[in-house]
Amino acid sequence: MLKRKFIKKPVVVEAYQTKEQQVIKTLEGDMIASPGDWIVTGIKGEKYPVKPDIFAETYKEV
After folding, report:
1. ∠ Cα 37 40 41 (to 5°)
2. pLDDT tens digits, residue range 15-54?
3. Beta bridge partners of 24
4. Fewer CB within 10 Å, N side or C side of the chain?
5. DSSP letters along 22-61, please?
């Protein structure tokens, strides 16, 4: 199998940082967001939590 490399397309998403623990209903099922996690809304309206260190490495403000 030939492995290929890809880069994500530049897509603008909305996100907010939660101050309290909450349950986020994702496409993969319920996930727990901890205080400080970012809640990202994807391009189809889906939501998912992202840990602050991963968010900082993956996203930048526009």
Report:
1. 155
2. 999 999 999 999 899 999 999 999 999 988 999 999 999 9
3. 31
4. N
5. EEEEETTEEEEEPTT-EEEE-TTS-EEEE-HHHHHHH---
